[in-house]
Specification:
- This protein has two domains: 2-112, Nucleotidyltransferase, domain 5 (2-Layer Sandwich); 123-275, 2-Layer Sandwich (Nucleotidyltransferase, domain 5).
- It is 46% helix and 23% strand.
- It is built from 13 helices and eleven strands.
- It has a six-stranded mixed β-sheet with strand order 8-7-6-9-11-10, sandwiched between helices. The chain has a five-stranded mixed β-sheet with strand order 3-2-1-4-5.
- Strand 2 (13-23) and strand 3 form a beta hairpin.
- The relative contact order is 0.15.
- The mean pLDDT is 93.
């Protein structure tokens, strides 16, 4: 079954086509095509409070192109969602109406907790005697979503207004870091026994540069080295040294800082990186919904 999703984030807009099926009771998603356009809505929202006309036009043009690709590809299901930047933009509703009118696309705005739930639903790592909880973290341009799950599978989740574009814009106060720190303290009895599962474009790039790609693991000491090395280079030097796009070279440092802060706090030794994000989660969720509906018929 071919399904498609659009994820309108604070940093980029993504269109994903994927083949989805089941194997041994598990939903398997095979990515067919992924297109990423760095529209960067968050640059406006986190400095001016709203989406500028220039960004809005760029977004609509992008979604028009995506709509044509969806029309040609003809997936069996399609969904489009927007996250932090659209949630917080003063003119978010106006931009959504423009998208509906000019691109013919219905976009749902999801909150941080729903975003965390969708991402959490696509990965499962079993617990053991040594591992008591799993912490899922997704770092975006506008926010960081964290869920902590124990063996009874009951999640405790929160969305924090700490994102890469916010950090670059100087819009993250010390109090936000304190809120994150204090929230994590509720799990202090399990510190050292929490496995950390991370998602997002930056952690996917970090594992390619510094991790074990065959095992999808990024050791904590390597993450710390990555932060020191990348921080010592200018954006241009990062682009040249690691062949990074401009829109990745600037945000990768604040993203690394967020991941490293959480890893050190919970005393995890490594980060597990399944290379799945919101766009993947939306497709898996859609597949499960379609299967449920077909069984009722």
């Amino acid at each position: 079954m071919i399904l498609s999703s659009v994820d309108i984030g604070s940093n980029a807009v993504r269109l994903l086509f994927a083949n989805v099926h089941e194997s041994n009771g598990e939903v398997v998603i095979e990515k067919d095509t992924l297109i990423r356009i760095p529209v960067r809505l968050g640059q406006d929202v986190y400095t001016k409070g709203k989406i500028s006309k220039v960004k809005a036009k760029a977004l609509v043009k992008t979604l028009k192109a995506f709509s044509m690709l969806v029309d040609v590809h003809k997936p069996e299901g399609f969904v489009a969602c927007a996250t932090a930047a659209m949630r917080e933009a003063e003119n978010g509703e106006d931009v959504l109406k423009m998208i509906r009118k000019e691109a013919g696309m219905e976009v749902s705005v999801i909150d941080g907790l729903e975003e965390a739930r969708v991402i959490r639903s696509i990965t499962h790592y079993p617990l053991s005697e040594k591992i008591k909880k799993t912490l899922y973290i997704d770092v975006g341009g506008g926010s960081t979503e964290i869920s902590v799950v124990n063996d009874d599978n009951e999640p405790v989740a929160k969305s924090f207004p700490i994102g890469t574009l916010r950090l670059l814009s100087g819009k993250v106060d010390d109090i936000e870091w304190m809120v994150l720190n204090n929230w994590l303290n509720q799990f202090k009895e399990a510190f050292g026994k929490i496995q950390m599962v991370a998602s997002g474009g930056n952690i996917n790039k970090l594992i390619k540069l510094y991790g074990r790609t065959d095992e999808n693991i990024l050791i904590g000491t390597n993450l710390e080295y990555a932060f020191k090395q990348l921080s010592s280079l200018s954006v241009e030097e990062r682009m040249e040294t690691f062949n990074l796009r401009p829109d990745r070279a600037d945000v990768i440092v604040p993203a690394t800082k967020i991941y490293l802060t959480v890893l050190k706090k919970i005393q995890a030794e490594a980060v597990l990186v399944p290379k799945m994000g919101l766009a993947d989660g939306l497709i898996v969720q859609m597949y499960r919904d379609l299967k449920r509906k077909s069984k009722k018929k």
